[in-house]
Design a protein that fits this description.
The complex is a heterotrimer of chains A (246), B (196) and C (578). With 196 residues, chain B is mostly helical. Chain B contains seven helices and no strands. In chain B, helix 1 packs antiparallel against helix 5, helix 4 packs antiparallel against helix 5 and helix 5 packs antiparallel against helix 7. The longest helix of chain B has 31 residues. Classes of the chains: A alpha+beta (246), B mainly alpha (196), C mainly alpha (578). Chains in contact: A-C, B-C. At the A-C interface, helix 2, helix 3, strand 7 and strand 9 of A face helix 4, strand 1, helix 8, helix 10 and helix 11 of C.
């Protein structure tokens, strides 16, 4: 509802509703303030134009209303902050689901593609080393290392099962990128030298854009992948075909 | 046209223009070096290992340079006092010393740089060396600027003595404040890079 | 100084000495203003090129497309490299070479000594040096377009590692920034000293015109916030030139090749240092605009500012707080709850003094006798436009909503409302208001009205759709305006509207340029105080003021905005009237 009213993309993850609610409330507050304040402004301009009110009043406004409005604004901001924004952020940063309940996937950004790395059936990632990076091995996965044999690596294709928590371990090989799936209300910068976890619960089947939100060079505009949210069965079938074609 | 309070202090603020100006300039310098020191802390905290400064740097030379710079701060004050007492020959002597010590500091620094290059240590070697060259290099530029100003106050800038000795004294005082600041920066840099 | 001035009376110096190398703050102010307005036009032109590419991606640029050369736009079709250069340089030029030099270097230089009753700035030769450092910085920035690989292309924010590995233009950018920073530092030392030391007798701090207060706070921001950027620029320069890796962590693989650097650096170090400058910089852009608007609102409503004292406290508080909010630009870099809660809280706190200043200005109108002169139109429009800019800062300052809006067109819309129909409108208001003081002639009101209404409508048509685009999830800095993104389908008509509005906005600026030149020759002549104003620049000296400003240094007897005082002979009582 709120998303449609504000022209935001269809929400497709569990946490999106709360962010959309915050977005809606903030914009409602903004609208009320702008209309109230704009109305006063226009009324003042009309009523006190020199043609109609040729002698100005030295003292001007005597009411304390503006002070009360300022206090009200501060209180509203405080409520939004404490009631919605800070808890939302806390759950984003610290509310990570336990790894065994979640689909864990590594996303390694590079100019100008998203490398997606699944641990495979054993649930453990093989070792990656920068010196092994090559066009055929974009994440530098050491296939001889333990747990690496069943790993699945794709480019720009992120498949996820519906209604299960997902943890994306986000990193980058070169410059700063930003992992953004507007439908999930998820965005996180990928910072060179760091691996940052991002989590969400996709809850709507379909295909969504995965785009880069941080200027990363001349191909920034075409750094785009697809997130496919599918049924658990379809997801399992897909990952099996990837293992087979490896 | 005369700019007010160039020579005499404004009664309600208690300072001359140049005194306020130099303090403001030093405030910005504090922010400049403060940012670089914060960068040092951030990079050092984030590093898995950090070399010991004393193992790489020439500590005796660094200590000598510290002594040179502190001494030059003292001679700078003496030069200013001499000027205030209208004792020109002592002013020449102490300001001359200050310039000489500044040059000496820079020479020792240059020798240290050359020595590091010979050992194959460059700014690109690691973060520590990068910080060493950047911080001491920027500091050396400040010392060089101070030497230029002090030399000017002995030469072309000294002609003001004939016209407005008070104003010249204020200039020497301002140059001195700057010189002490450069000295203090070094007193922070020396332990940061040579000892820790 | 003493001997120099007696020389000046003896013989008029040659023309180039009086214009290019004068130490008179009024001449330097006008130099700053003209140079800055030329840069504003250059930055605007870059934007018009970008707007073509966004409205019609991949179509040859009309008229100028063929002149850009094969490295920028082969066959007139813009390359993504060139688009990124335009983006980075549009931001850099508009902020550092346009708005700040006009607001501080131009208006500040011209008006501060006049408004405080001083013969000149405290350090006239330093003033000259800061202008020339600024001009040199501008030349370096423009020259970077002709460097191999073109100008800087990593955004005006120049985030490493991208900026570390960018083409030579980035080195030019850093060198240019160091010159511009030097210029600003020299300027701010001069402003603070001038305001503190050279106030006329009787002009206590609480009697200062609000514009002077805004310049004082701005100068402190420049003085203390620019050095960290200078430090950051020095470190990036070392990364690019001397092979250090302050901003480069270990293990980077660029274009399939491992980078041959020692590593161990931190990309976020740059962001902290950069935003420690760049957030106060936002207030550097807005405070002088508030100052100009306050002057004009008091004058054209013919009554004192409402809550002058509270406004002064607010801007001082604003200046102080602006050093504590920088990381709200970095919510998405992996920030924890505590940090984000801290920076969200400071951000909400800093919004309060802005609300206070804005509502004081609006309430000031209540009970006035409002004259809708050209400067008043621009100054009044500033209020709702800055209001929109401020309000849309709210969802960006709250980390939760920032997740969706970060790096989208919503951000672009937000800060352009603050700076373009906000600050730039205030600057136009200032030009129309003080033009008679500087030239002795009035600007044409009819052309002024066309300029205002045209700019007002087109500005809003450009920037209002950005909020729609941003909420829809359209990212900034997209070379193709997102036409290939499935989730952005249906948004392209907005880009077309924005494009045509931008070019129309350009046409309306031609009206302004014509007005300036016409008014210089044909504008009606004015006396010292055509607006019947109270502050010293109008009340105590001629239009234009002579070298040295005042025949006799005025003595101030009252506050800055004594309009419509009950029982006074006229509806304005100058600060120096007995």
């Amino acid at each position: 509802m709120i998303a449609r009213w504000l022209g935001m993309p269809v929400a497709a993850a569990a946490g999106a509703a709360r962010l959309d609610l915050t977005m809606g409330l903030v914009h409602a507050l903004m609208l009320v303030l702008f209309l109230g304040w704009g109305g006063f402004f226009v009324y003042t301009l009309v009523r006190f134009r020199a043609g109609r009110h040729p002698r100005a009043d030295y003292a001007g406004a005597r009411s304390k209303v503006s002070t009360w409005i300022e206090i009200a604004v501060a209180v509203a901001e405080g409520l939004l902050l404490v009631g919605l924004s800070i808890p939302a952020w806390a759950s984003r940063v610290s509310g990570l689901p336990p790894e065994h309940e979640a689909v864990v996937v590594r996303v390694v950004a590079e100019q100008f593609a998203w490398n997606i790395h699944y641990p495979g059936p054993d649930g453990v990632f093989g070792t990656t080393r920068p010196e092994l990076v090559s066009p055929s091995n974009p994440t530098g996965l050491d296939r001889t290392s333990p747990h690496a044999a069943d790993d699945v690596v794709t480019v720009n294709q992120l498949h996820l099962p519906v209604d299960r928590p997902v943890i994306v371990q986000l990193s980058t090989k070169d410059v700063i990128h930003s992992f953004s799936v507007p439908n999930f209300r998820v965005k996180q910068d990928a910072i060179p030298g760091l691996m940052i976890p991002v989590w969400f619960v996709p809850n709507r089947l379909g295909q969504y854009d995965l785009v880069c939100a941080q200027l990363c060079g001349l191909g920034h505009y075409r750094m785009r992948g697809t997130v496919t949210v599918e049924t658990p069965e379809a997801f399992d079938a897909w990952i099996r075909t990837r293992e087979a074609t490896r | 046209m005369e700019i007010p309070y160039s020579t005499t202090a404004r009664p309600d603020t208690g300072v001359t223009n140049s005194k306020l100006g130099i303090w403001l300039f030093l405030a910005s310098e504090v922010m400049l070096f403060g940012s670089l020191f914060s960068a040092y802390v951030l990079l050092r905290v984030g590093a898995p290992s950090w070399p010991h400064g004393w193992a790489i740097m020439n500590v005796p030379l660094g200590a000598l340079n510290t002594a040179v710079l502190i001494t030059s701060s003292v001679t700078m004050v003496l030069a200013w006092v001499a000027l205030k007492e209208r004792d020109l020959s002592r002013y020449w002597l102490w300001m001359g010393f200050t310039v000489l010590l500044g040059v000496m500091f820079l020479s020792i620094k240059a020798f240290e740089y050359a020595d590091k290059f010979q050992q194959g240590l460059y700014p690109s070697t690691n973060t520590f060396m990068g910080l060493y060259f950047t911080l001491t290099g920027l500091h050396a530029l400040h010392v060089a600027a101070g030497v230029v100003v002090n030399t000017w106050l002995l030469g072309a800038g000294f002609t003001m003595w004939e016209r407005d000795p008070d104003r010249l004294t204020h200039r020497v005082e301002a140059a001195g404040l700057y010189w002490h600041f450069v000295d203090i920066v070094w007193i922070v840099l020396f332990p940061l890079l040579y000892l820790l | 100084m003493t001997t120099q001035s007696s020389d000046a009376h003896a013989a008029v110096p040659p023309f180039w000495r009086r214009t290019l190398f004068s130490t008179d703050h009024k001449v330097i102010g006008i130099q700053y203003a003209i140079t800055a307005m030329v840069f504003l036009l250059v930055g605007f032109f870059l934007m018009m090129l970008m707007r073509w590419q966004l409205a019609y991606p991949g179509r040859p640029i009309p008229l100028v497309g063929g002149l850009l050369g094969a490295t920028r736009a082969p066959g007139g079709i813009m390359l993504p490299e060139f688009y990124n250069q335009l983006g980075a340089m549009h931001g850099t030029i508009m902020i550092f070479l346009g708005v700040v030099p006009l607001a501080v270097g131009g208006f500040g230089n011209y008006l501060v000594p006049l408004q405080i009753g001083a013969p000149d700035m405290a350090f006239p030769r330093l003033n000259l040096a800061s202008y020339w450092a600024f001009a040199a910085g501008g030349v370096v920035m423009i020259a970077s377009f002709f460097a191999p690989g073109g100008a800087a292309s990593s955004g005006w924010t120049s985030y490493p590692p991208l900026a570390d590995i960018a083409t030579t233009g980035q080195t030019f950018w850093l060198a240019g920034m160091v010159l511009l920073i030097t210029s600003s530092l020299l300027g701010s030392i001069n402003f603070i000293t001038t305001i503190v030391q050279l106030r006329a007798p009787g002009l206590s701090f609480m009697r200062l015109p609000f514009f002077v207060w805004s310049q004082l706070v701005t100068s402190f921001l420049l003085l203390l916030a620019f050095p960290p950027l200078e430090a950051a620029a020095v470190l990036q320069l070392m990364d690019r030139v001397a092979g250090t890796s302050f901003y480069l962590p270990s293990g980077l693989v660029v274009g399939g090749k491992a980078m041959a650097v020692a590593g161990g650096g931190s990309p976020l170090l740059w962001q902290h240092l950069f935003w420690f400058l760049a957030h106060p910089e936002v207030y550097v852009l807005i405070l002088p605009a508030m100052g100009i608007v306050a002057e004009i609102i008091a004058n054209s409503s013919r009554k004192p500012l409402w809550g002058y004292r509270l406004m002064v406290y607010s801007v001082v508080f604003l200046g102080f707080m602006s050093f504590l909010v920088w990381a709200h630009h970095m919510f998405l870099t992996g920030m924890g709850t505590t940090m984000s809660a801290f920076f969200q809280t400071t951000t909400m706190i800093i919004s309060i003094p802005s609300v206070v200043v804005l509502s004081s200005l609006v309430v000031s109108l209540w009970g006035g006798a409002i004259r809708f002169t050209t400067p008043a139109l621009f100054a009044l429009a500033f209020l709702p436009m800055f209001g929109i800019g401020g309000l849309t800062g709210l969802p960006l300052g709250l980390a939760a909503t920032d997740i969706h809006l970060h790096d989208t067109y919503y951000v672009i819309g937000h800060f352009h409302y603050v700076v373009a129909p906000g600050t730039i409108f205030a600057l136009f208001a200032g030009v129309y208001y003080w033009f008679p003081k500087a030239t002795g002639r009035m600007m044409n009101a009819r052309l002024g009205a066309i300029h205002f209404w045209g700019s007002f409508v087109t500005m809003n048509l450009i920037f209002m759709p950005m909020f729609i685009q941003g909420l829809a999830g359209m990212n900034r800095r997209l070379y193709d305006a997102g036409v290939q993104d499935p989730h952005l389908q249906g948004l392209q008509p907005w880009s077309v509207l924005q494009g045509w509005s931008a070019w129309a906005l350009g046409v309306f600026q031609l009206v302004f340029i014509v007005n300036v030149f016409w008014s210089l020759r044909k504008g009606s002549r004015v006396d010292a105080n055509p607006w019947q104003a109270t502050t010293l620049e109008w009340a105590a000296t001629s239009s234009p003021p002579p070298h040295g400003n005042f025949a006799v240094i005025p003595t101030v007897r009252r506050g800055p905005y004594e309009y419509s005082v009950p029982g006074a002979p006229a509806d304005f009582t100058p600060q120096n009237a007995i």
